[in-house]
Amino acid sequence: MYKKAEVKLNGGRGACLCNRCSVILSYGVDHTDVDRYCGSCYNVLVSALTEIANASAADFAIGNKLAEFIVDTANGALKDKDYE
After folding, report:
1. Spatial separation of the C-alpha atoms in residues 7 and 40, rounded to whole Å
2. CA distance 83 to 16
């Protein structure tokens, strides 16, 4: 029935659980099928995603500087040589 939301029976009535730690978030069986997280797990995920984004941004900046250096070096080499 649910592919993302973790919904289990809890003493005869449904419960929607945190996808990471399985703490009960709400009761019932009618839930939107999305990943759900408690506050603590959500904060952990946000911190991890922020670290990944910052690392990717730093890598991207380094990549851009390296690409600029390579282009400048190649252009300088072409100017130093007489090609016909």
Report:
1. 19
2. 70
